[in-house]
Amino acid sequence: MRDRNRFDPATFEPQHFLWSFHQGVATITLNIPDKKNPLTFDSYAELRDTFRDLVYVDDVKAVVITGAGGNFCSGGDVHDIIGPLTRMDMRNLLEFTRMTGDLVKAIRTCPQPILSAIDGICVGAGAIIAMASDMRYGTTGTKVGFLFTRVGLAGCDMGACAILPRIIGQGRASDLLYTGRIMRGEEAERWGFLNRLCEPEHVLSETQALAQQLLEGPTFAHGMTKNMLQQEWNMSIDQAIEAEAQAQAICMQTADFERAYKAFVTKQTPEFGGN
Asked: Which residues form the domain of 250?
């Protein structure tokens, strides 16, 4: 485990993916392009640890996830992961499935907005990472597939049965999770999985531009919004309204709230500070 007090986004050099950091936006690039960027045991763990660490990193205001070579992610590597899983006992299998689920938990509980820039193949665990992100930009060439039933597994992997229906609806999620079929870019946008379609050569830059736009806003309040979006899944309406009352009261004590008020009075654009 890395020392969280020493996580410097400007000098961080992960071993199993690429990392860049510019003006508050971190970009994670899955980088095994000859295999369409599969995940390995090591990359799962390093991604999980990175998102856990980002809870404590104020300099990073938003994160973009993408893939190298015209594809997002082809899921778990057949030789590094799938093969070994067929030889594991139940204890080791459960250790693995809990570890992959911890990656989703880390993405969802990370306070920064997480955006995915998706072109080409986005299947299996790659589709799960995109699903766990806060927003997703894609292309007409995007191919999303939750392929678990194709290899004899259940569609309930890494939170898919909980999260995917909340994005696209129960019936549509059932379609994808039962059949394992490919959902192409236009359908993914129409169903609400993708927030926007971009040209392939612009999908990353447009996603990074959105991240930049978000970090110029009230980033403390964005973190509160993400937290409420996550926590309110398990609340009644009355509980959610009370939780939001408390959350909003906290935001009303921030300097950003006062900055916005003063800017409105003077008819200027507020300059938020994230506090």
From this structure: 219-265
- Single-letter amino acid code for the residue at 229: L
DSSP code of residue 71: -
Same domain (yes/no): 43, 167: yes
Residue 9 lies in a domain: yes
Q: What is the CATH number of the domain that holds 85?
A: 3.90.226.10
- 81 secondary structure, DSSP code: I
Binning pLDDT at 50, 70 and 90, where does residue 1 land?
A: very low
Instruction: Tell me the HSE value of 63 on the side-chain side, using a 13 A CA sphere.
Output: 31
* Residue 274 falls inside a structural domain: no
Strand partners, 63: 26, 114
Enumerate the β-bridge partners of residue 214.
Answer: none
Share of residues in the chain with pLDDT > 90 (%) = 86
Give the separation between CA 1 and CA 4, rounded to whole angstroms: 8
Residue 273 forms part of a structural domain = no
> Based on the domain organization, do 250 and 158 belong to the same domain?
no
Q: List the structure tokens of 135.
A: 């927003």
| DSSP state at residue 168 | H
Q: Domain check: are 25 and 83 in the same one?
A: yes
pLDDT digits (tens, 9 = 90+) for 240-262: 999 999 999 999 999 999 999 89
Query: How many CA atoms within 13 Å lie on the side-chain side of 31?
Result: 11
In angstroms, what CA-CA distances link 267 with 15, 152, 259, 275?
Answer: 48, 60, 12, 21
Based on the structure, what is the number of domains in the chain?
2
Give CA–CA dist 251/220, Å, rounded: 8
Residue with tokens 């899944």: 233
